[in-house]
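Aim 2 progress update. The chain analyzed this quarter is reproduced below.
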Amino acid sequence: MTKRTWNWALWLGFALVVTGFLSYTVFFARFAATRDFPWANLLLFSAGVVLIVTGLFRAFGKSRAYRGKVSGPILSALSALLIGFFCYVFFYQLREVPLSVGAPRPGQTAPQFTLRDQNNKPVSLADLLSGSKAVVLIFYRGFW
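Predicted structure tokens:
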């Protein structure tokens, strides 16, 4: 009888899925390249799924050599739930932006305001209009 070994592919795959799930809000949301579309998280999920499937084939195909008949399906189900929840929140829930009822319309005069620029100096709309005839304002809707 051969000694069964630890099925590292299952656990490493699950660790990659958990890392992909948690790393968006902790790390990847800071950068525009990974905030707008979570390609890095999807790569982590893909690598995790490949490893989990490999681990499941080991656990059920070579059950005398590898462990994981019980933990494999449990980790697979948890991984599917995490990936599904991430995709639901990112691709559906966060795209449901509320209507901007009070936002200015094109051509409408903007209310007076003062904001800070990239050097943390206050800049007001009145100051910008005093130096030129018109100012173009661009409103970005979303979450920051």
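The mean pLDDT is 88. The beta strands are 114-116, 122-124. These observations will guide the mutagenesis experiments scheduled for the next reporting period.
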